[in-house]
Amino acid sequence: MKFMKLGSKPDTFQADGKCIRYVISDLATDVTIIVGEVKFHLHKFPLMSKSNRLQKLVLKASEENSDEIDMVDFPGGPKAFEICAKFCYGMTVTLNAYNVVAARCAAEYLEMTEDVDRGNLIFKIEVFINSSILRSWKDSVIVLQTTKSLLPWSENLKIVGRCIDSIASKTSVDPANVTWSYTYNRKLLAPEIIVKGGMKYQEKIESVPKDWWVEDVCELEIFLYKRVMTAVKSKGRMDGAIIGEALKTYAVRWLPDSVDALISDVHSWRNKLLVETIVCLLPSDKGVSCSCSFLLKLLKVAILVGVDDSAREDLMNRISLKLHEASVKDLLIPARSPQTTIYDVGMVHSIVNQCMINKKCSQDLDLGKNDVGCTDFVLGHGSLLSVGKVIDGYLEEIARDPNLSLASFIDLARSIPEFARPVHDGLYKAIDMYLKEHLSLTKAERKELCSLMDVKKLTMDASMHAAQNDRLPLRVVVQVLFFEQVRASAGVQSLKNNPRDASRSTTNTEEEWEKTAAEDCNSIKKQMNQTKIKESEFPKNGKFLKKDSRNSKSGMQLLPSRSRRIFDKVWVVGKGHGENKSSETSGSSQSPTSMVPGDTKSAASSAKHRRHSIS
């Protein structure tokens, strides 16, 4: 810390209690200066020799036959006046970053200018501020902090502006050229180990990180911090990511952790101002500088403290640009009254819609350029895949809310485009959770809910779970079993024997299922008559088994009981369309999954094959 000593005489100021100060001298004091609650018993001559204002006040007091002068609204109070008085007496005074602003304002109040005496206090303080204080990083920050209690004097004397400009200029300096002291306690990374010639050397940690200035600036009050950050941004030399890190550090430093402290009457106004200030200082770089997690946490606080709609919408727009980075936990925004749900699903839905609008505009822009834009288009789809995954996880979480309406769930699920959800496992989990927590759904509502899911996009594990899920409508379970059979068939058959049949089977749509169940049943039968069922392809009780085929040449494994019943039922219906009642009855005892195609080479070889009943 820089300091400057003024005067050479010993300090002879003495105190008599808390409210009386006097100078030890052979001469009796002849004037009493009242500053606040303190009375200073001093001599007129040394004071009048340095202060133009005291000359006028002493003359006025003499005309009124009074030896007391009351200094009303003296900047800096008794301590600042004592510094000025000691300077007038030529006593030793030490100026530093903590008292220089108060001394400067007091000297201005007393009019201690060069017109009164050459080398007066105002001149000396200005030299000290310009040559020492403003050249020091920490002293500039400290001085700026002290200006708050001395407004408007410190503002009118341009001390605030000069400190802000000094701080902003130093933040823009190349870190390699930073030689002054600063505070830095974040991200203390372990040094890397470098191996050269078989010897290990410890690499030196970068002496000055790019965001070296962040913590010191965080000590400023919100209105000063806003001015400093505005000046830093206006310089145009600061990376947006560092500005984002600075805002995050400031929010962590000043925003309370507990909800009660956030919304308490004592601090609610301050917290609201703080959040609105941080939002307005966010870099205008489409959200690249700040993490999505930080923006979502800031949004939660903004909702709690009741910030303006414009600030909240600004945050939501920024979040929509980085939604692919979000986590399910971050998206769980508590709902506010009068909402009855646990989480604010409508706000997340708005963010997702804005995200899709942004992606569409960005992709249209890229496709309208050149071939380079195609790469960005593909990458954009990659980020949408992440959005689809996180929203599916969010759907599973909010599905546990008994007050969540079916319409809200379906609308949010449909806000994700098909290409952003290539696998429907996450969506299936969400649907299953909603069915589990909302048992009062009607058959039509369950059907509408399950229509969100494409069974062709379920993985093997999800399909096996769905095939045994009693909460799903029967029609959905049949669809799952059918497409799993088609998938198993496609894996076994060669492309030469059955490339077109597999293609036709996988293109069956939900409408075709509704149109004619008989055709689907026949298709199932055809697939199973053509397919040699391999070992371990079908689960028993939802688990895959591996066993030696010596006990059974076909290696056939039994399906779960519900699946058997479904296939039996489908088989009966399918047989009923083209055969008599007796053949229908016999068909019901032998499901298509138990059929193993025989070898057509000879009757003897085909007789060796068995039919295994699963009923």
TrEMBL record:
Pathway: Protein modification; protein ubiquitination. Residues 211-487 form the NPH3 domain. Residues 29-97 form the BTB domain. InterPro entries: BTB/POZ_dom, NPH3/RPT2-like, NPH3_dom, SKP1/BTB/POZ_sf. Residues 583-594 have a biased composition (Low complexity). It comes from the Eukaryota. Keywords: Phosphoprotein, Ubl conjugation pathway. Residues 493-560, 576-615 are annotated as: Disordered. Pfam families: BTB, NPH3. GO terms for biological process: positive gravitropism; protein ubiquitination. This is NPH3 domain-containing protein. It comes from Gossypium mustelinum.
